[in-house]
Input
Amino acid sequence: MSDFQLQPRIVFGPQALAELHNLPSRNALLVTDKAMVKFGLAERITGPWQQRGVTFSVWDDVVADPDIATVVRGMKVMDAQQPDLVVALGGGSVIDAAKAVIYSLAQTRPQPHAARPHFVAIPTTSGTGSEVTAFSVVKAHEEKLVLVDAFMLPDIAILDPSLVASVPQSITADTGMDVLCHALEAYVSRQASDFTDALAEKVVQLVFSWLPTCWRQGSNLQAREKMHNASCIAGMAFTNASLGITHSLAHALGGVFHVPHGRANALLMADVVAWNADLNGSCSTQAAEKYAHLAQLLGLPAATPREGVTSLLVAIQTLKAEMAMPRGISECGIAATDFNVRLDEMVNQALRDACTPTNPRQPDASALAGLYRQAWAGHHDDTTQGHK
Ligand SMILES: NC(=O)c1ccc[n+]([C@@H]2O[C@H](COP(=O)([O-])OP(=O)(O)OC[C@H]3O[C@@H](n4cnc5c(N)ncnc54)[C@H](O)[C@@H]3O)[C@@H](O)[C@H]2O)c1
Ligand SMILES: [Zn+2]
Output
């Protein structure tokens, strides 16, 4: 038996933000970060609240890749205020922090569900899909822990493309590759279904069609809207199908070396696709067939699974190159000695990551170490061209 869950309600498109101001509240809390205040995005929430006489406060203390200390600070703020409405405005870091705060505070009450405020998530990056997922990633020391609980699902997600127009080029590239990675990992996951496959296929097409335009021309609101929708649709796919070891490896790399989440995925993704497909071997895995089907949908050569997987790998590398992304971890300012010293620790974190069990091929420690080493060098051209 399988299941597919649909929540929250999604309001999307130009002017979608106006929906927030149809929601009743007497006592609202805006969870956000300093960049949202600086870019004037927080004001787009609080201005209308002021006009309507809503009592509110702003907690703008969320840091990128939130840690347990951030969650504890948020619990104190929320406990003191007891809001009836919580609005999370920001990237995945802000939305995840709000989720973890709501969840953790409710667990301290005798009736957690009764203690849950109405929760609206408004993403300002097109990346994590956190606005529709039951996941929250919280850092404990140097390890990213993935909390999974439907209790954290927002009640409403608002996708307004005008909120992502200010995302700088490098974050557009990182977060856009995160979207692609969510779709690829959900598509070959052990929990993939017809429902999640339909979503993942659409996402892959949207990303290859629109991400380069978003990167070149950040103010193109049509391209921004397409990527914003793709991000959310990918979230719907992976909250149901879960993810795979690109994410496990990326969580550990991000936790230990502070590589932004999407960039970490972009660095590891091609090697994981090749490994899942068994490109060095028979290339007859179910994952290989599914990757080849994606290549076909993209109009790329895919007469055999091997040709399809190779085409998809080339397309991924081309997309990264178009956005001037680093090819290998070695290009991310990490010293080789530091990387080698921390390798075992990262491998162990990745092995116990919540995303590992649903990967189509089960890795052991040496397979994961091998994937890190390949991604360190970033010689993907050799990988793709050597196995045609
Ligand atoms: N919950 C999930 O399902 C899920 C899935 C994948 C990743 N994650 C987690 O989400 C986090 C990453 O989230 P992210 O990739 O959205 O990045 P982020 O939220 O960390 O934001 C990255 C940077 O972009 C800035 N920013 C955000 N919106 C902006 C805008 N409109 N204009 C200008 N700057 C803006 C932020 O202030 C921040 O400095 C990681 O901790 C990752 O592990 C969660
Ligand atoms: Zn991700």
Remarks:
- Residues 381-388 have pLDDT under 50 and may be disordered.
- Residues 128, 178, 181-182, 247, 261, 265 surround zinc ion (ligand 2) (CB under 6 Å).
